[in-house]
Amino acid sequence: MSATKIRTEKEIKEDRAAKVADLEALENKARGREMTNEEQLRFNRLFTEIEDLTGELKQGQRRRQLWAQGADRQDGRTPNRGSRVGRNSAPALLGDMATSLVRGEINRRDGLTFSSNNHIIETDNVLSNIAYQLSTENRLTELGARLEPMANYSVLPVEEQRAQGQHWTSGDQVQADTAMVMSARDIDHKTFVAMVKADKNWLIDGGELARDYIGTSLAATMNEQLIASVLHGSAANKQPDGIDNTAGIPTIDAGGASVTDHGFHLDAVSELMSKNVRRENIGYIYGNKTFRQVAGLTGTDGQPLMPPAAISDLRHFHTTAVKEDYGAGNDQTRMYFGDFSNLLVALGGTFRMELVEKYADTLQTAFLVWMRYDIQVIRPDNFVIVENLSTT
Question: Sign of dihedral through CA atoms 241, 244, 245, 250?
């Protein structure tokens, strides 16, 4: 059975305009006299069809508004397209690249060139746009993290220890050997591949809807991977080292306890403030089960337990990217606090998308997106991990 073709907004508007013209012509023909039964039936049918088309247009507009509200969906299967729901949003760019591959065409628009050759798009001029759009759509940036285009092997200064000082009293005074230590780390891009498969008939008949869904799915996968790598990335797994595997980050041991009050939050904030991190710069990330524990806290009076004012306005979000299988019993999780402006996600290399016909025997087409990136924590002591939290 063939798929029902989804009409574009342009096609619906053209159909509606044609029916409105027919309706007006029918009214003009019957001007000065009553319509015949046949004319009245045709008039009623046209009027109903015009109303249906108007409703279809409004439904499409509402659907696009819902897509644009992806920011309200937690790190999302539908990514945040935010206020930039234009043709240069990350889902739209990725969708256009996929469309160019399917059609075997060269697509130029808005200063960008997507060249399709041998079922591969390889372009540098779209990288900065993809990086910029991902930075507007990834929830890490809400906490202050930076997603920036950066060349491989760029040198990045990392502060291992803060500057020390003392009052000067005499010419033979020696500065204590605890001075600020600045080290340099190279940006070392790792490779991540996102894949989405689509049915052939859907690609052919889906039009703009298919393009948007492909782009949205790929952008969501890329954003989810960036968050997971920031938290748990490991060089042993061919990933950039994330917060879990960065030396010098303090930890707070929950001892296998559940969240029963806001004590762990206050301990983490206090630890950061002892490093002169400004309270208003602190944000945190936690998992879904911890979210449930915090949201379900109640006081002795049975009423919801509100967080203290000192932490009530901290930026935060929960995500499935936070692991919940730590510990011997695979039932422990973590919370990540910090000044995320000291976290850099460097995107680089040539941005590449491939069309793969490996799945042709099942009437499917696969799209592969190759993303190169690295993660650097500039000031490790500006972060703290609350670990060994029970998920039960």
Answer: positive
* Alpha-carbon distance values, 195 to 192, 219, 353 (Å): 10, 11, 10
Residues 19-35: tens digit of each pLDDT:
888 888 888 888 888 88
- C-alpha to C-alpha distances, 240 to 58, 80, 219, 236, 296, nearest whole angstrom: 45, 24, 19, 9, 35
Question: How confident is the model over 327-384, as pLDDT tens digits?
Answer: 888 899 999 999 999 999 988 866 778 888 777 778 888 888 888 899 999 899 999 9
pLDDT band at 296 (very low <50, low <70, confident <90, very high): very high
Q: Per DSSP, what are the bridge partners of residue 155?
A: 186
Contact at 8 Å (CB) between 301 and 366?
no
Spatial distance between the Cα atoms of 297 and 119, rounded to a whole number of angstroms = 54
CA-CA distance, 49 to 198, in Å (whole number)? 33
The Cα–Cα gap between 274 and 280 comes to 14
* pTM metric for this prediction: 0.70
Beta strands 343-356 and 146-149 are parallel
CA 195 to centroid of chain Cα atoms: 16
- Residue 240 to residue 231: CA distance in whole angstroms: 10
> The tokens of 361 are what?
């025997």
For the record, the structure tokens of 141 come out as 């940036």
The amino acid at residue 266 is L
- Tell me phi and psi for residue 111, to 5 degrees: 80, 5
CA count, 13 A, side-chain hemisphere, 59: 10
% helix / strand / coil in the chain, to the nearest 5? 40, 25, 35
Give residues with Cβ within 8 angstroms of 153, minimum separation 6: 186, 187, 188
Of 386, 391, 367, give the one whose Cα is nearest residue 114: 367
CA distances from 63 to 8, 67, 68, 148, 194 (A): 13, 6, 9, 31, 25
H or E, element range at 127: helix 127-137
CA–CA separation, 72 and 139 (whole Å): 10
Q: Which residues pair with 253 in a beta bridge?
A: 387
